[in-house]
């Protein structure tokens, strides 16, 4: 039955006045009490009374919906995007030199790089992926074989080995204490982790190192590679035994480790993988040494590239500030662990007061590295300055939604100009996560690196690299500028002094096995008593002459290469200067030329040309 109250208000008002005549109302009716009562009722009270009539469940659903929208934007979730694309994933963007032989022979055979990447549907967020990798990454169980390496300054570096014989049938077994044979030709992959702390420290990078490094080492060893994880100084359960500490631009440890492994296994091809800060160190090392590096190939995963840009980025948004705080706490634990060392004593109190990664670098890293300012440390340690000089095949993988290493720092143009670099970027992936599959049991970039090294291993580039390795190559350019009396050639062509201390350091870096072999060789030579050795001992001038000739050869080769490079650049610079000079001086020259022509042809009349 239709009620009268269900009608609209104007219709109800009309019906009321039609039913009751105006004569039924008293003529002397007082309207003032009604107006006063109407004025006494607050509109907010009426609004609250109306809101109170809405059920509580409706409020709960509305609040939940708004909260989900906030989380979707705050956590940068892209599930709806994946749903609309029917979970096909996004194509991998490759940036490389179109004239590069590496792209034609290697990338063409890398099916994963030419495919698509789809993140795990229930991890459709860079923050969720990074958190899952940190706490629930489920790495494969494996056991490393540890060797300790003594650096030239007394520092100790832990090398964790996992050979292909340690992984049997896809599962890791307990390795024996014996090292790999000296003549083993199995290719070796050196892994440089990121900015890590101890496994017990409250650092995201410390947890990441345990997770993704095990994934990488296990998959590479299962495919027939020998893997060695080079832990940074003071990490991996090994105490800091010297005043020297690592930082984002410290490449000396990596250089010594590579030379040490090359001496131990001279016939094994060497490759390297760097992650996060380790990727920055690896690219910087490749740019510093150029063609002198003994590596056959490398991969840089989630590199920060430009530390100054990343420093600005990590302090920009609230979510990035959480990562910044987590990294700072981990580094504070590292400084507290070694506060007894002389170099840490004067800065330990300041590091505990650091509220951000920049503050820690200002109080500790800058002081220990002897940099003038924090920005100076960031600029000099950034690997983007060395991309141009990379001379070995390098695969770079980055996610555009990386919450730690922003895509704004990627050197797109530099990577495109270098024929040895292939840059692969994906819209999603997080920081070092790149989980794929419904169960999130696989990491995409681990499969990419495995495939890239496998294709590169059988490519023509390796044959050319082996010939280059077999030939006599100059030693890596050193960075010492305050040593004497020997000569040292810098990257910019400057000649500086170098002392005898470096020879002693090299002797400390070699292994005990090499020392034993050298002693045996010395014993054999002394027992034979050849006339050549006697002649060398009686004629020290001959040894000096040979040493001088060797020094001259080592000096001429890099200098000649630098001169050739400068000559090529000078020819280009001359034409550029001519063009700039013409453009910049044309207004002045044109005005002068116009004034001269006006004076010269002031009395000139065109009609005179037609006169006979």
Distance between the termini: 118 Å
Average pLDDT over all residues = 76
**How many β-strand runs?**
17
**Major sheet:** 9 strands, mixed
Helix percentage: 40-55%
Protein name: Embryogenesis-associated protein EMB8 isoform X2
Region (Disordered): 513-534
Organism: Gossypium hirsutum
InterPro entries: AB_hydrolase_4_sf (IPR050960), AB_hydrolase_fold (IPR029058), Hydrolase_4 (IPR022742)
Protein model, in words:
This protein is α/β, with parallel strands linked by helices and 612 residues long. 49% of the residues lie in helices and 12% in strands. It contains 23 helices and 17 strands. The strands form five sheets. It has a nine-stranded mixed beta sheet, with helices on both faces. The protein has a two-stranded antiparallel sheet with strand order 1-3. It is globular. The N and C termini lie far apart (118 Å). The relative contact order is 0.10. Mean pLDDT is 76; it is low at 1-22, 197-208 and 472-539. The chain crosses the membrane at residues 7-26, 46-72, 574-597. Residues 213-305 form the Serine aminopeptidase S33 domain.
């Amino acid at each position: 039955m239709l009620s009268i109250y269900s009608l609209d208000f104007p219709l109800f008002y009309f019906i009321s006045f039609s039913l009751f005549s105006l004569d039924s109302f008293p003529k002397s009716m007082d309207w003032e009490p009604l107006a006063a009562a109407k004025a006494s009722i607050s509109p907010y009270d009426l609004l609250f009374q109306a809101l109170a009539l809405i059920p509580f469940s409706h409020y709960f659903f509305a609040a939940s919906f708004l909260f989900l929208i906030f989380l979707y934007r705050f956590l940068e979730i892209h599930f709806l995007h994946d749903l609309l694309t029917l979970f096909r994933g996004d194509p991998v963007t490759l940036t490389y030199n179109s004239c590069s032989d590496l792209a034609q022979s290697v990338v063409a055979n890398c099916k994963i790089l030419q495919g698509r990447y789809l993140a795990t549907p229930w991890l459709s967020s860079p923050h969720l992926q990074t958190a899952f990798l940190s706490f629930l990454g489920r790495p494969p169980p494996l056991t490393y074989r540890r060797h300790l390496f003594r650096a030239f300054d007394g520092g100790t570096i832990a090398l964790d080995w996992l050979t292909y014989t340690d992984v049997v049938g896809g599962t890791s077994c307990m390795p024996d204490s014996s090292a790999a044979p000296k003549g083993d030709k199995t290719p070796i992959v050196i892994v440089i982790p990121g900015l890590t702390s101890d496994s017990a420290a409250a650092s995201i990078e410390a947890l990441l190192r345990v997770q993704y490094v095990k994934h990488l080492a296990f998959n590479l060893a299962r495919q027939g590679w020998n893997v060695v994880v080079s832990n940074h100084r003071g990490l991996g359960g090994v105490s800091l035994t010297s005043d020297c500490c690592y930082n984002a631009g410290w490449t000396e440890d990596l250089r010594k480790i590579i030379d040490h492994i090359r001496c131990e296994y001279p016939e094994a091809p060497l490759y390297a993988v760097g992650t996060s800060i380790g990727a920055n160190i690896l690219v910087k090392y490749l740019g510093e040494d150029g063609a002198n590096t003994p590596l056959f190939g490398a991969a840089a995963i989630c590199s920060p590239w430009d530390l100054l840009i990343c420093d600005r980025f990590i302090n920009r948004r609230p979510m990035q500030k959480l990562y910044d705080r987590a990294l700072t706490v981990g580094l504070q634990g590292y400084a507290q662990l070694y506060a007894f060392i002389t170099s840490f004593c004067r800065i330990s109190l300041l590091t505990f007061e650091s509220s951000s990664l920049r503050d820690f670098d200002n109080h500790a890293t800058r002081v220990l590295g002897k940099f003038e300012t924090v920005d100076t440390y960031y600029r000099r340690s950034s690997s983007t300055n060395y991309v141009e000089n990379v001379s070995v095949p390098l695969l770079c993988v980055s996610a555009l939604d990386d919450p730690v290493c922003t895509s704004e720092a990627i050197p797109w143009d530099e990577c495109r100009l270098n024929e040895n670099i292939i840059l692969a970027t994906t819209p999603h992936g997080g920081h070092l996560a790149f989980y794929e599959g419904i169960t999130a049991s696989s990491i995409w970039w681990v499969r990419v690196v495995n495939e890239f090294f496998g294709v590169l291993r059988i490519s023509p580039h390796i044959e050319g690299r082996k010939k280059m390795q077999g030939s006599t190559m100059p030693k890596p350019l050193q960075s010492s500028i305050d040593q004497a009396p020997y000569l040292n050639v810098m990257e910019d062509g400057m000649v500086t002094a170098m002392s005898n201390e470096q020879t002693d350091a090299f002797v400390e870096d070699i292994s005990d096995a090499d020392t034993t072999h050298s002693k045996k060789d010395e014993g054999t030579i002394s027992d034979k008593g050849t006339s050549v050795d006697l002649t060398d001992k009686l004629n020290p001038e001959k040894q000096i002459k040979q040493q001088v000739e060797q020094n001259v050869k080592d000096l001429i080769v890099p200098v000649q290469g630098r001169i050739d490079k400068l000559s090529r650049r000078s020819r280009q610079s001359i034409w550029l200067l001519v063009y700039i000079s013409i453009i910049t001086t044309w207004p002045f020259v044109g005005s002068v030329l116009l004034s001269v022509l006006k004076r010269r042809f002031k009395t000139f009349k065109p009609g005179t040309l037609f006169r006979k």
